[in-house]
């Protein structure tokens, strides 16, 4: 199969089927080489960072139009792929139950009801033409092998699936097939969309999880479909801790996190928080009442302020939010006011968000946390903290009867 090496070192493969032309397949998961059209993001506010060319940039003055924005109901098709070298004992209903309704519920809570992900699982297995071992499935997948897998999967599924009906596509492989590697689960993007059934497919979520799968794994991968970055740190040699950037505090950092709700900054980017819920911190001292991020808003209300932002440069900011033990964060072992840095020029996996540890000499929840040094990062009532390297001091003065935190920020 012809391959072309791009200037950035990314292999591209040209794939053709009767149903679709898969052109210029990217070799890196969760990576798109096309920035996409800029779409206005009304109400982004004066403290919003601008979107840059960085992959999955957390700038939010505009929306990358190459990605669907989850501000409405989106339909997701789930296609189950079997292989001739293994007769599965699992049913498609069992595998559907591994991911739904849990994934839809996660986004329903995270979005405060502003977004609904509706799954459409197929009832029958779709048989691939080659044995599972023939595709070389693994985490750092050879681009020609991944191209062959997607070529065969799209061709096989297109006989049963009308892709024009769906906004999100999941290909779920038989988890017990001998060539399937659960570490290979990821989103594969195309720098040119695939034409299938009269619609343009820009990315496919490839799922290779064991049964039962990792907790929240599909919520993490679906986040990439909505232009959210990886927040974990991947060691260059493959050794060391992956969770040093954000610990448990966002599903895009770890699907195993105790408090996996999306950061308020990410919710702002997705349109789930609006300008009325963001405080842009002025110079001097100011008071801010922050409602815990996972608390559901009252009926007919917005839920109050969820984020305070201090701009520290043209491409950086300090974000302050409250985290409590409710909703997606129901399993957290600590509560309080969380502080983190945001950089709009840091790409996915390069630390676009880094939690600032308010208690650097201690750790917590060693038996449950993915990274105990950050498990006790939040500030508690009565504590004052100066952000290292910044002339910014944060004091948690009080917690109201409703559970909101009164925070004094001095810059």
Order of helices and strands: EEEEEEEEHHEHEEEHHEEEEEEHEEE
From the spread of the alpha carbons, the general shape counts as: elongated
Q: How much of the residues is beta strand, in percent?
A: 25-35%
Structural class: alpha+beta
Q: What integer value in Å does the Rg equal? A: 22 Å
Main β sheet profile: 6 strands, mixed
Descriptive notes:
This protein is an alpha+beta fold. 13% of the residues lie in helices and 29% in strands. It is built from six helices and 21 strands. A six-stranded mixed β-sheet has the order 5-11-12-10-8-9, with helices on both faces. The protein is elongated and about 65 Å long. The N terminus is likely disordered.
Provide the fold topology.
Layout: E1 3-5, E2 11-13, E3 15-16, E4 21-22, E5 25-29, E6 38-40, E7 62-64, E8 73-82, H1 92-99, H2 102-110, E9 116-127, H3 143-158, E10 168-173, E11 186-196, E12 199-207, H4 217-225, H5 264-270, E13 278-280, E14 285-290, E15 307-313, E16 316-323, E17 336-343, E18 353-356, H6 372-375, E19 384-386, E20 393-399, E21 405-410
Parallel strand pairs: 8-9, 8-10, 10-12, 13-15
Antiparallel strand pairs: 1-2, 3-4, 5-11, 6-7, 11-12, 14-21, 15-16, 16-17, 17-18, 19-20, 20-21
